[in-house]
Protein backbone atom coordinates (compact mmCIF):
# COMPACT_ATOMS: atom_id res chain seq x y z
CA UNK A 1 0.00 0.00 0.00
CA UNK A 2 1.29 3.44 -0.91
CA UNK A 3 1.13 5.77 2.11
CA UNK A 4 1.68 8.87 -0.03
CA UNK A 5 -1.44 8.06 -2.07
CA UNK A 6 -3.50 7.67 1.10
CA UNK A 7 -2.17 10.94 2.52
CA UNK A 8 -2.97 12.73 -0.76
CA UNK A 9 -6.54 11.37 -0.68
CA UNK A 10 -6.98 12.63 2.89
CA UNK A 11 -5.79 16.12 1.86
CA UNK A 12 -8.09 16.17 -1.17
CA UNK A 13 -11.00 15.27 1.09
CA UNK A 14 -10.65 18.47 3.09
CA UNK A 15 -9.40 20.81 0.36
CA UNK A 16 -12.83 22.21 -0.53
CA UNK A 17 -13.52 22.95 3.14
CA UNK A 18 -10.12 24.62 3.52
CA UNK A 19 -10.54 26.82 0.43
CA UNK A 20 -13.96 28.01 1.57
CA UNK A 21 -12.49 28.68 5.02
CA UNK A 22 -9.68 30.77 3.53
CA UNK A 23 -12.31 32.93 1.82
CA UNK A 24 -14.56 33.40 4.86
CA UNK A 25 -12.80 36.57 6.04
CA UNK A 26 -11.94 38.25 2.74
CA UNK A 27 -11.80 37.76 -0.98
CA UNK A 28 -8.53 36.40 -2.34
CA UNK A 29 -6.89 35.57 -5.63
CA UNK A 30 -5.57 32.12 -6.42
CA UNK A 31 -1.95 32.78 -5.42
CA UNK A 32 -3.09 34.04 -2.00
CA UNK A 33 -5.25 30.95 -1.53
CA UNK A 34 -2.35 28.68 -2.49
CA UNK A 35 0.05 30.53 -0.18
CA UNK A 36 -2.36 30.22 2.74
CA UNK A 37 -2.76 26.48 2.13
CA UNK A 38 0.99 25.98 1.77
CA UNK A 39 1.71 27.99 4.93
CA UNK A 40 -0.63 25.62 6.77
CA UNK A 41 1.40 22.68 5.36
CA UNK A 42 -1.48 21.59 3.13
CA UNK A 43 0.55 20.97 0.00
CA UNK A 44 -1.47 21.47 -3.17
CA UNK A 45 -0.65 22.49 -6.72
CA UNK A 46 -2.30 25.06 -8.95
CA UNK A 47 -3.56 22.30 -11.22
CA UNK A 48 -5.69 21.02 -8.35
CA UNK A 49 -6.97 24.36 -7.11
CA UNK A 50 -8.07 26.01 -10.38
CA UNK A 51 -10.61 23.30 -11.34
CA UNK A 52 -11.90 23.22 -7.77
CA UNK A 53 -12.42 27.00 -7.74
CA UNK A 54 -14.30 26.73 -11.04
CA UNK A 55 -16.50 23.95 -9.69
CA UNK A 56 -17.24 25.89 -6.49
CA UNK A 57 -18.15 28.93 -8.59
CA UNK A 58 -20.38 26.85 -10.88
CA UNK A 59 -22.08 25.38 -7.80
CA UNK A 60 -22.94 28.92 -6.64
CA UNK A 61 -20.65 28.84 -3.59
CA UNK A 62 -18.15 31.39 -4.92
CA UNK A 63 -18.24 34.46 -7.07
CA UNK A 64 -15.34 36.39 -8.53
CA UNK A 65 -14.34 39.81 -9.74
CA UNK A 66 -11.41 41.09 -11.77
CA UNK A 67 -9.14 43.66 -10.19
CA UNK A 68 -6.29 45.57 -11.80
CA UNK A 69 -2.83 44.81 -10.43
CA UNK A 70 0.11 47.21 -10.19
CA UNK A 71 2.52 44.31 -10.65
CA UNK A 72 1.15 42.49 -13.68
CA UNK A 73 -2.10 41.44 -15.33
CA UNK A 74 -5.51 41.81 -13.66
CA UNK A 75 -6.24 39.36 -10.85
CA UNK A 76 -9.35 37.27 -10.35
CA UNK A 77 -10.49 37.61 -6.73
CA UNK A 78 -12.77 34.90 -5.36
CA UNK A 79 -15.26 35.39 -2.55
CA UNK A 80 -17.98 33.44 -0.81
CA UNK A 81 -21.57 33.89 -1.89
CA UNK A 82 -24.36 33.79 0.65
CA UNK A 83 -24.96 30.16 -0.30
CA UNK A 84 -21.21 29.52 0.08
CA UNK A 85 -21.24 30.97 3.60
CA UNK A 86 -24.18 28.76 4.56
CA UNK A 87 -22.44 25.75 3.03
CA UNK A 88 -19.25 26.56 4.96
CA UNK A 89 -21.20 26.82 8.22
CA UNK A 90 -22.60 23.33 7.60
CA UNK A 91 -19.13 21.98 6.81
CA UNK A 92 -17.78 23.49 10.04
CA UNK A 93 -20.34 21.55 12.05
CA UNK A 94 -19.64 18.36 10.14
CA UNK A 95 -15.86 18.84 10.55
CA UNK A 96 -16.22 19.25 14.31
CA UNK A 97 -18.28 16.07 14.58
CA UNK A 98 -15.89 14.13 12.33
CA UNK A 99 -12.78 15.43 14.07
CA UNK A 100 -14.19 14.58 17.49
CA UNK A 101 -15.10 11.07 16.32
CA UNK A 102 -11.64 10.45 14.83
CA UNK A 103 -9.96 11.70 18.00
CA UNK A 104 -12.14 9.40 20.09
CA UNK A 105 -11.45 6.38 17.90
CA UNK A 106 -7.71 7.01 17.65
CA UNK A 107 -7.51 7.86 21.37
CA UNK A 108 -6.00 11.30 20.80
CA UNK A 109 -6.35 13.90 23.52
CA UNK A 110 -8.35 16.96 22.66
Note down, in words, how this protein is organized.
- There is one protein chain.
- This protein has 110 residues and is α+β, with helices and mostly antiparallel strands.
- The protein has one domain (16-103): Arc Repressor Mutant, subunit A (Orthogonal Bundle).
- The protein is built from four helices and three strands; from the N terminus they run αβααββα.
- The chain has a three-stranded antiparallel beta sheet with strand order 1-3-2.
- The protein is globular and about 50 Å long.
- The protein starts with a helix and ends in a 5-residue tail after the last helix.
- It comes from Flavobacterium hercynium.
- This is PadR family transcriptional regulator.
- Residues 19-89 form the Transcription regulator PadR N-terminal domain.
Write the layout of secondary structure elements.
Blueprint lengths: L2 H20 L5 E2 H10 L6 H13 L3 E8 L2 E9 L1 H24 L5
Antiparallel strand pairs: 1-3, 2-3
Amino acid sequence: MNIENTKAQMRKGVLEFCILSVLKEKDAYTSEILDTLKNAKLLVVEGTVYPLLTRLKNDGLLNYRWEESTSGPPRKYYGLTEIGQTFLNELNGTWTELSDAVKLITNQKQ
